[in-house]
Each structure stands twice: as C-alpha cells, then as structure tokens.
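Suppose a colleague, Dr. K., hands you the sequence of a protein chain of 220 amino acids and asks what its three-dimensional shape might be. Before reaching for any lab equipment, you can write down a predicted structure in token form. Begin with the sequence itself:
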Amino acid sequence: MFRHCSDRVRVKLPLSKPLAAHPMFSGIIAATGRIVTVDPLQDGVRLSVDVGGWDIGDVAIGDSIANNGVCLTVIVKEGTHLLFDVSRETLNCTVGLDARGEVNLEKALTLADRLGGHLVSGHVDGVGEVLKFEPVGESHELVIRAPAALAGYIARKGSVTVDGVSLTVNWVRTCDFSINLIPHTVAVTTLRRLKSGTRVNLEIDLIARYVERMLEWQKQ
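The predicted structure, expressed as tokens, is then:
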C-alpha cells in the first residue's frame, strides 16, 4: 500500500521555512561530568550535571548535549552546572540518568567539526549488559550482550555506540559482541568503571537503519 508514496514527487520548499536540523554527535567524548542532583518532575526528572573544567562557554540554553549517549536539551546554565529535563519515556529505555554518578559528555556537532567517530543521533536503541571487561595486554576487552531486537544490526568491524562512546566491533556471536578498548578510551570515559553485570546504553549505526528500510521497500 506504500508503493505510491506521492509517486516520489519532488516538493519545492519555501526558502523562508528552512528544514529543522536534528542534532548529531560523533561518539568522541569531550569530557566526563557528574550528575549531582536528580529532582523528580511530574513525568520524569530534572538533572543537574557538574561538568567540572569542561569549557561550556559556547553552550547556550536550548543546545543539545549527549549524556551517556542520550541527547538532552540544556534548560539552565549555572556556572559549571547544566540542567536537563528527562522524560519518563527516556528513563524507561535508558540507564544511568536516574541517579547520581559520572556521565560521558559531548556537544552536538557543527558543520566545521571533524567526524572522528561515526554519526550518532543520541537516540538510544536499547540497553545491553556487560558480560566481560578485562585487561588484555595494554588494552581491555569489553563483551556486551545486546537485546535480541538489536543483534541483527551489529556487525563485525561495524560501529556501535556504548554509553555515548563510538566503538568498533571485533566479533559478533548471536547477541554477544566484543570490543577492544585502547588505554586512552578507558582513561577518558566512564567505561573504565564497567564490570560484569553493568547495563549500558546502546545505539546502532545509522547506516544499518537505512539498509533495513531499503530492503523493506524493495519487498513491497
């Protein structure tokens, strides 16, 4: 029934109404901050995040900041503290935003920024569980079990975002996948605190979404 999707008519948009841009991230963590207060709201919570020495001089009210991979909007800026409202829906499908603790932080990309990781939307697709986090030589091996619904989108040598960090998959076995973490990544992100049983936010590569949609379209 979707074959005649406006017969693929090209619509000319008025120049006075530009398309709204969605914030994007790279998965390259700029700093770690700490959730210092979690205040309940009618349908969610309000977080106060102390960013420490991270330069937020260019951050304004309404800007998007990824917290552990979750895109949140700055509603208040007070010194080194940024405040964010998190909806109940977001809390239900993510981890790490409902209690005090350390979070990975990244500002939204600008057109002038380098894309050092991969394109990340800040929309968490599911929550995984750490099965293993152990040193291997100078690096660490991280093994995560993804929800079955996401497993098909995770590929060897493909990209995946774990708590906001852009990482490369080494191997995949059914729902489990392995990642090699270099010392720098372990040192500058919250991933250094992982242990067996820890739950983490996962976002699949955007390319996988488009491939699935293209395949679905071809079957129609």
